[in-house]
Write a structure and sequence with these properties.
Two copies of one chain form a homodimer. Chain A is an alpha+beta fold. Chain A contains ten helices and four strands; from the N terminus they run αβαβββαααααααα.
């Protein structure tokens, strides 16, 4: 048996184990699409946990999905067999099991043309701008944000972030959507990257402000966002019932941000 | 005419303009695939400019391609109409024009199953690990590297980088390839992210060392790497002939790393 075959079997057993933790299916009937997130997080990251990207995409496309959970307690190691960096979300689509929110989003985008045009030009443009959000913008903004919340006196990434945001401001001053003259998964991802409040207050960039307001004003975002808040509020109730503090780990979370990025 | 239509036309005109700069087609006959890179860079980034990712993918898949260039001088603004962040490479495939090396690589991977399996599981695993390379590993390693070369006394990203590399070490200790039990574009991308010398000397991670050696030992990498070095050496010759210094801008490049990341 090859090592990765062994890992596959371990992953399958682990999925059964994770399933036993589930707080239940939130959206009615079982569906082929399952979005995995935490059972609870502190107040800080609520509304920003990345399961929102997948919820939002499903809402835009009208795809049925369920939400299941991994315990927040022990998150560093309790789902490494499903996500080797201990992060959330991951996505199941029937027999497919996908981690990385960017990969899950690309998978959903291929399922429905509301998220990505089907013509080669439109598809290439959408994928290109999704990659730009992940590897040209977020690659700078998330580490910058991390240094900010770590209380670094002199944030060595500030110049680079300012440069990237200004380059993007020029693009957004000249177009309503990033790709194909219409809303796509690239806008969903870029707006989710840009809506972080520390970024919104970093310099005056009106075109970017309008873009973020326009994209996050969509009903599908509003629904996904409200659903995430309600999900974690339900987690508060469960913790209260179980006698667990709902604030105890907030400090710890700020130090270990890598699993619940902004 | 919509704003983005105007940008398209500007981009088309700009492409004609860029084409007039080309140092010529390096790989014989014209092909549909054109990889755009700089005409010259200083010694430091040679062998690491990201056109290598696209060259390497084409070599693995046996896809014919041409290499064309944008002048290094004036790079901050001379190709913004093709790449809004002033970065290289970008890829042309006939009428398709794609920036972001990750997007170009995904496009090439879809063209040939040597780079990505055609079955849904193999494809999903490959895309997932490509996204992990771009958004879980490189999102930490590139800003960390930038702070290192900027001479920051205390690199606030060191702990996060160490954590990510250790998580990846555990994965690589148990498998030869990241996805689908075979070489894929995910290995190409992850090995390219990991082969940066500062990362290789950051802690003792033998499985990762073996992985990087194994993947970069492939003939297609060796060919792409040698071709990039020869390309910039030819740039030295052109600059000498034109009376330009080949080292003058090296200091400037170190400060402005974002266009020639490691």
């Amino acid at each position: 048996m090859s090592p990765s075959r062994k890992i596959d079997i371990a992953a399958r057993l682990s999925r059964q184990w994770l399933a036993s933790w589930s707080v239940g299916v939130e959206n009615g009937e079982m569906s082929e699409l399952t979005i995995w997130t935490y059972d609870w997080v502190p107040q800080g990251p609520r509304g920003f946990v990345r399961d929102l990207r997948l919820r939002w995409a499903c809402e835009e496309a009208g795809l049925a999905y369920s939400v299941r959970t991994v315990p927040f307690e022990g998150r560093e190691t309790n789902h490494l067999s499903r996500q080797p960096f201990g992060q959330l979300p991951f996505l199941d689509d029937g027999a497919l099991h996908i981690f990385e929110s960017g990969a899950g989003l690309l998978h959903l985008a291929r399922k429905d043309e509301k998220l990505m045009p089907r013509d080669p030009e439109g598809e290439a443009e959408t994928v290109q701008w999704m990659m730009a959000a992940l590897n040209s913008i977020e690659m700078v903004t998330v580490p910058w944000w991390f240094l900010e919340i770590s209380g670094a006196a002199d944030n060595g990434l500030a110049g680079w972030v300012g440069n990237r945001l200004s380059q993007l401001e020029k693009v957004l001053a000249e177009r309503e959507w990033l790709a194909a003259d219409r809303f796509t998964a690239a806008d969903l991802l870029m707006a989710d990257v840009l809506r972080v409040s520390k970024l919104r207050s970093f310099g005056n960039r009106p075109a970017t402000d309008h873009y973020v307001a326009r994209v996050t004003g969509r009903p599908a975002f509003q629904k996904a966002h409200a659903d995430q808040l309600a999900h974690f509020a339900a987690g508060d109730e469960s913790r209260r019932a179980a006698g667990q503090s709902s604030v105890r780990e907030a400090g710890d979370l700020t130090r270990r941000q890598s699993d619940v990025r902004p």
